[in-house]
Amino acid sequence: MFNLERWQEIFEAISKNKLRTILTGVSVASGIFILVILLGAGKGIENGIQKQFEQDAVNRISVWTNVTTKEYKGLNLGRRIQLHNLDFDNSVRQFGENLENKSSVYSIWSGNVVFGKETGTYRVEGVHPDYQFIENAGMLKGRFINYSDLKNFEKSAVIGNKVSNDIFKKGEQPLGQKINIAGGMYTVVGVFTDPGGEREESRVFLPISTAQKAFSAGDTIRSLAYTLEKRASFDQAVAESDAFAKQLGVMLRKNHTVAPDDEGAITIHSSLEEAKKVYMMTDIIRYFFWTVGILTIIAGVVGVGNIMLIIVKERTKEIGIRKALGAPPLSIITMILQESVFVTTIAGFTGLLLGMLVWEFIGPMVQSDFFYHPEVDFNIAITTLLILVIAGAFAGFIPAYRAAKIKPIIALRDE
Prior knowledge:
It is built from 14 helices and 12 strands. By secondary structure, the protein is of the alpha+beta class. A 6-stranded mixed barrel has the order 3-4-9-6-8-7.
């Protein structure tokens, strides 16, 4: 039940100790403000890292080669290892049932692309149809490379959105247009977008069979790329990714007469393993931020407890008179707790509101590769405020309990 006189007493007590109450409120407000800022920053780091992993499939496994770094079976170090179509075919034959997507890649880093009077230099890659999903490429227009393109050596080209904007005039339809790529004419069959942004969209995809023929590559390839079937748990996916990478490495090193431990000659990279390390790091950052924020709030709550002890001490005679007039202990406890919870709630809500406003207005302006869209979940923020209020009640309970135990005769003697 609402008791107007009780609230008048609370405001009167606060007004008598304005500076002390304000300082206590500031300590509580700053505690939850710091927690909200830290949680928002942690979320920004997490979002930034997740955005980086969105550029390619999270469970991507990539293979590329270099020169041997160890002697093996009488062969000198320094031999350059070259992948071939047979390596890709053997991997699909041996591991195909576990693969979700697979592609070999032949690429040239600087391919001239010309349309009319417009020209540009872009990365050109010969790929398989599955490469769209390995790269997380979304189609804005048309389609991606298909198996018919591979089989028939079609001169089909899928261009990135950046390439399309560079060589085609605004409003001009790219699909069906003939473009010159490194001296050969190709038909644009699709325009793709990529979460990685303009850097990833500055590429042109061709059927790998066509690219190898056009660039006189024979059956050589630059790299291999795979994704495995989705699994129920992250740990299971990491374990299977590691097992596949190990088996694939054994097969490739054996076929190319490379030392089993020569990872420099044949490198196999699993983005899942990298993701696991990064997410573990973000968890550590999140726990650290929570710990710092909660300790700051505890310091504020302790301040509330201290001010309540001082208030009880100052009002000892008043409390004694109340008890002498028949006030029950529960009413004394309620009076002290109400004041404690009121100060904690107002200060906590102020700190929460300020923290949310900071991320609402400043958050969109603070963006980088590994810091994106900092925010605080509203439910977590409200839950934190409720916990703070409960903590404030506990902070006021000890002084309230002491006040309820005061004997009227002793209280009336208090100076």
